[in-house]
Amino acid sequence: MNIETLRYITQIIEEKSITKVSEKMHISQSALSQHIKTIESNLNTQIVNRTNRGITATESGEILYRHAKNIIDCYDALLEELQGSQDSLARIRIFANPLFSSYALPCTLFDLQEKFPAINLDMLVLPSHMVEQKIISGEGDIGFINGKPHDQSLLAKVVMKDPIHLVAQIDFPIDESIPLIQLQRIPLIMSSGRSVTRMNIDNALSLKGIDLSRLNIKYHMYTIESVKLSVMNKHGLSFLPYSSIKKELYLKQLKIIDVSEVEIYNEFYLILNKRFISKNSALNEVTLYLQEILADTLC
Q1: Which one of 3.30.360.10, 3.40.50.300, 3.40.640.10, 3.40.190.290 gives the CATH number of domain 161-266?
Q2: Residue 161 exposure: Cα atoms within 13 Å on the Cβ side
Q3: What is the residue-level pLDDT of the chain in tens, covering all 299 positions?
Q4: For the purposes of burial, counting CB atoms within 10 Å of the CB of 96, is it exposed (0-12), middle (13-18) or buried (19 or more)?
Q5: Predicted TM-score (pTM) of this structure
């Protein structure tokens, strides 16, 4: 039994639904069911009943819920106190999604380190939904994610809108501007369907009436860099974020193909947990400065 299991169980009892908690906390329903089985096995008692109307707590479940809430509150209070005491440690933990950390943040981090030489800036890279969880739990101080945070209690501010362009190798035989309907005839290399960037591309094209199943997709690649390499080798065209292709455009290795009527972009957010930021003066100082310089220092 651990603190995360207790968080899941209390949420399930409060929401009376595994499905709602699965969507809210970005965890599969099967994993939540396993947490229930594990805690019932550890305590040797049934804690919930499953009915057609949802989940209800048993008498044992109600007892567990009361004590679990106290444990979670104590744990969160502990984190807040430790967070406050870390001023003397001068350590700021920054979590960012792969795209933002690779192509936008390096120059900003350099500026931050120059401004605050006594502060140790730790940068860790995770998918956006995991970054959000790290900020919620207090394991991270500052987060950067692609898209709005799901948890409305977080402080969130848009810090960058990154256009997504259709790009080709500089010598690829194609007009500089094409009608939307021509997309179905172009060989495409696409990023993974699980990425926020890919979802933004699919949503934008679908809104314009493009049947995604009829696109001429040659294959999928997991990373932006692998997609870009395929495009540079003339295997096809792809939709890529501007931040990831600035160098190749400058070196005239890639070119942007204008697609009429289509506008696609990633929207990156800075996220903070307001419960912790007020307890840590170093974090507060860094965050205020970061918001001042971010727009001018992104790579």
Answers
A1: 3.40.190.290
A2: 3
A3: 678 888 888 999 998 888 888 888 778 888 888 888 888 888 899 999 888 778 888 998 899 989 988 888 888 878 776 665 554 456 889 999 988 898 888 888 888 888 888 888 888 999 999 999 999 888 899 999 999 998 888 999 998 999 999 999 999 999 999 999 899 899 999 987 678 899 999 999 999 999 998 999 999 988 889 999 999 999 999 999 999 999 999 999 999 999 988 999 999 999 998 877 666 677 888 888 888 888 777 77
A4: buried
A5: 0.67
- Topology given in CATH for the domain delimited by 89-160+267-297: D-Maltodextrin-Binding Protein; domain 2 (3.40.190)
92: exposed, middle or buried (Cβ count in 10 Å: 0-12, 13-18, 19+): buried
